[in-house]
Specification:
CATH topology of the largest domain: Aspartate Aminotransferase, domain 2
Largest sheet: 7 strands, mixed
Strand content: 5-15%
CATH superfamily of the largest domain: Type I PLP-dependent aspartate aminotransferase-like (Major domain)
Oligomer: single chain
Helix content: 40-55%
Number of helices: 14
CATH architecture of the largest domain: 3-Layer(aba) Sandwich
Number of domains: 3
Order of helices and strands: HHHHEHHEHEHEHEEHEHHEEHEEH
Shape: globular
Length: 470
């Protein structure tokens, strides 16, 4: 296919995309398939000769849409969403056409400079003070890894980069059990070791407190271990838990430890001033990550890390060999030095388009609606027989269960096999619970209220004994 062919097929793809989104409510949210069903429809060997685009397109239509879980479905209430507003899709088309690599400033000046401005727009939007700067990662996993590597090197006086970790002190990091598994992964990848991630006990509100953090640090110091950093949870994936951000940061500062706040989902909600009490004290953090691809309509991947002072992270991750220099521009920002990958996509363009196309006011309205509709769904679910609310809404996330784990698991399977909505599971104090998270960019109140309606129908039609055999 040449560029004239691309012109034709791009228009056809745009028409397909519009029809796809218009018809999403008519599709099951999750594909009713078994593993291997899609792969069996694709030849096991690559073609020797070029094939016509009509044949390729026909196979795409026949195989792919019916084999997908539809993340843009307005009744996708599972995980956290990976939202893609139409303005973001358009920006990504333009980025794909330019196919740039923004590894250093001179390879894509506009990508670098628009990224600087967009990060500052978001800093202002979530209420962080002047002085915070940042960069865009692919996901919060890499942002957290970057923060952990930086905290490791600060604790070691940057010796780890040259000497490695062998024979060095045992470093300890602190987080609550409500933090995402990406924190555990960062600790493992950074060479810290899983056993050196201290999961600090939480209070009745599932929050790590300053007192508990202080006690854990003191115990490690007494044992001859070296505390290196604190990772705080602001909107945990399981049930939306928030640590006591301000008091934990105050303890960390008193102990001389840097802090990283994982607000991957909930950070976007802080564009609404009324929710900022949930992360009160955030201005004292050294690093904060949140994902506009989860709740602001900038499609995956787009994870923003805001830093009080980027110097330590650049010192940890930055390398500038001769072939990555820009002649005469010694102090230029090269964002590859702030992140793990060298190659970088032009992620800022979709933020620019989304923030302008919907405005903060429009985005706030969506988030406020999602929070309000989640509360309405919680009220109706609580009124149903056998349904018990396990955790109350934090923003737009809550969980519920039936009276036994087996019944709850059976209910969840039947809901997802039904296909009208999609929910996922978690465990709360060992109890199997169903997670509800409202956040799809184009969902309506009617979509959300289909959650209690579907549960009510299932309760009326099924006995919910043991999970049926497969």
């Amino acid at each position: 296919m040449d560029h004239e062919g691309l012109r034709h097929w791009s228009k056809r793809a745009a028409d397909w995309a519009a029809d796809y989104h218009a018809g999403l409510r008519d599709r099951p949210v999750r594909a009713p398939l078994v593993p291997g069903a899609v792969a069996r429809q694709v030849p096991g060997t690559p073609p020797e000769m070029a094939e016509p685009m009509e044949a390729i397109w026909s196979d795409f239509e026949a195989i792919v849409p019916g084999g997908m879980t539809h993340w843009q479905h307005p009744r996708f209430f599972a995980y956290f969403p990976a939202n893609a507003a139409p303005a973001s899709m358009l920006a990504e088309q333009l980025v794909n056409a330019m196919a740039c690599n923004a590894l250093i400033w001179q390879t894509s000046p506009a990508a670098t400079e628009i990224e600087q401005v967009m990060v500052d727009w978001l800093r202002q939007a979530v209420g962080l003070p002047d002085g915070f700067v940042g960069t865009i990662h692919d996901s919060a996993t890499n942002a957290t890894l970057s923060a952990v590597l930086t905290m490791r090197e600060k604790a070691l006086g940057w010796r780890g980069l040259d000497e490695g970790l062998s024979g060095g002190p045992i470093l300890r990091f602190y987080a609550s059990a409500e933090t995402h598994s990406s924190v555990d992964k960062a600790i493992r990848v950074a060479g810290i070791g899983q056993r050196n991630l201290v999961k600090v006990a939480t209070d009745a509100d599932r929050a790590m407190t300053g007192a508990a953090l202080r006690a854990a640090i003191a115990a490690d110091r007494a044992a001859g271990l070296m505390p290196a950093g604190v990772i705080l949870c602001a909107g945990g994936t399981s049930v939306g838990a928030f640590d006591r951000i301000g008091e934990c940061i105050a303890v960390a500062q008193a102990e001389g430890l840097p802090t990283h706040v994982d607000a991957a989902w909930a950070g976007s909600a802080m564009i609404c001033p009324e929710f900022r009490a949930l992360w009160a004290g955030i201005e004292g953090a050294d690093s904060v990550v949140f994902n506009p691809h989860k709740w602001l309509g900038a499609q995956f991947d787009c994870s923003v890390q805001l830093l009080r002072d980027p110097g330590a992270q650049v010192r940890t991750l930055g390398l500038r060999p001769t072939y990555l220099e820009t002649a005469g521009r010694e102090e230029i920002v090269n964002f590859n030095e702030w992140t793990v990958p060298l190659g970088r996509r032009f992620r800022a363009l979709k933020l620019w388009f989304v923030l302008r196309a919907y405005g903060l006011d429009g985005l706030r309205t969506r988030i406020r609606n999602h929070v309000a509709w989640a509360e309405l769904a919680r009220v109706e679910l609580a009124a149903l027989p056998r349904v018990q609310i396990v955790t109350e809404p934090r923003l737009s996330l809550f969980s519920f269960a039936l009276d036994t784990d087996a019944a709850t698991e059976s209910l969840l399977q039947r809901i997802n096999d039904d296909g009208r909505i999609y929910l996922t599971q978690t465990r709360v104090d060992g109890r199997f619970a169903i997670r509800v998270q409202v956040g799809s960019f184009d969902c309506s109140k009617e979509d959300v209220m289909l959650i209690p309606k579907t549960v009510q129908e299932m309760l009326a039609s099924c006995s919910f004994g043991p999970l049926p055999s497969r």
